[in-house]
Known about the structure:
Elements: H1 3-13, E1 16-24, E2 30-39, E3 46-56, H2 59-68, H3 76-101, E4 110-121, H4 123-126, E5 134-138, H5 141-148, E6 152-154, H6 157-162, H7 171-179, E7 186-191, E8 194-200, E9 210-216, H8 219-228, H9 239-242, H10 248-255, H11 258-261, H12 275-283, H13 292-315, E10 321-325, H14 332-341, E11 346-349, H15 360-374, E12 394-396
Parallel strand pairs: 1-4, 4-6, 7-10, 10-11
Antiparallel strand pairs: 1-2, 2-3, 4-5, 6-12, 7-8, 8-9
The structure holds adenosine-5'-triphosphate and ligand AH0.
EC number: 2.7.1.170
Pathway: Cell wall biogenesis; peptidoglycan recycling; Amino-sugar metabolism; 1,6-anhydro-N-acetylmuramate degradation
Organism: Adhaeribacter aerolatus
Amino acid sequence: MSKSLEHLYQLSKKESRIIIGLMSGTSLDGLDVALCALAGSGPATRVNLLQFSTVPYTDKLKKEIKNIFSKRQVDLQQVCLLNAYIGTYHGTLILDCLRQWGVRPDEVDLIASHGQTIYHAPAALHGLPDMPNATLQIGDGDHLAVKTGIITLSDFRQKHIAAGGEGAPLAVYGDYLLFSEKGQDRIMLNIGGIANFTYLPGSLDPAQIFSSDVGPGNTIMDAFIQSQYPDKYYDADGALAAGGTYHPSLLAALLDHDFFRQPFPKTTGPELFNLNYLSEALRKTPINQMSPADIMATLNRFSAEAIAGAIKKTLGESNGEIFVSGGGMHNPLLLKNIQELLRQMRIRSLNTLGINPDAKEAILFATLANECIAGQSPGLGAGNPKIPAIRMGKISLPD
Ligand SMILES: Nc1ncnc2c1ncn2[C@@H]1O[C@H](COP(=O)(O)OP(=O)(O)OP(=O)(O)O)[C@@H](O)[C@H]1O
Ligand SMILES: CC(=O)N[C@H]1[C@@H]2OC[C@@H](O2)[C@@H](O)[C@@H]1O[C@H](C)C(=O)O
């Protein structure tokens, strides 16, 4: 048996593992690197975040990814090059982080790499008969494994699609293992480029649990501010939106899309929620001139309406606890808008459960890798058609 395979076998029998979770999401802002200690598996999983860092992407890399991100026509050579480049680059960033943290690569058991989503095409979005759900993440796992010398699990989403899902949201698996609480209905809300949530009923009934995207997120707000103010990447602290007023007619046009009428679970991305989507809504709005601040205020309210509407649909009149994570939680106006729409519900940071909200998605991928290697049987999904009962992650050995 090769040294790596023997190591992998021994790892699967260990009581605890050191796993680096990586997330680079649709906001293209950088790479989240979470060094985690995971003990046990399945519902007995315990996770401890040892170190966390977000390494910002350079402007050059952001630009290169943007050239191929969520676009139907791209330079295929660029896709091919970035697949290899990002794999090795993420490996370099991990080695830098480990050096800063005083951790040797041989002290790390596994890397769990999400990769960079460049296109997400669930059937409801592409609408092509006879074509499947599909999604594509680049940043090849073999390159990470060889660069770091650490066994790497990557490309988690393909198995989900192969088993009947849309390749997302995968958060449901980790949310269930880490955050379910008997007797308390919980909503685990993540506001990234796209916003998504997991419903964890207090009954712990696996048949009721699900996870779904709800819409934007920050993605249209980010795209809009970048188009108006080239020196800004996002509406820091909601400042631009706070100086404007939202327009009900534009808001109604933004909310008038089939995506919002589809049942849960569903997924989406910037392939739909982009500047064209905004232009189309503006075209349907009977107002000639709107200031950037008013448009931003409306986009902010739009994200809040999409999020609050999905949560209301799920919880009805019952009171649930909402635990929020993701970059959007740092936008005070967005949180104020959501709270206004969900008056009776308590919204708290994921921090209150002892987990760094910015690290959550990276931790979730570390948890998926832990399940793949050490889980006795897929911890969730059996009997729930919305959640395929599978282990995810392709294994890359460094030797
Ligand atoms: N202080 C802040 N004020 C307003 N918005 C902020 C702030 N900090 C972060 N954000 C928003 O959060 C975004 C980054 O969020 P995050 O890193 O969670 O997204 P992501 O993981 O890339 O997306 P996804 O989860 O959809 O893949 C930024 O692009 C910005 O829109
Ligand atoms: C295809 C893809 O990368 N989807 C992401 C994206 O970012 C947020 C939302 O859209 C979510 O569905 C998913 O990521 C999280 C981590 C998930 O799978 O749960």
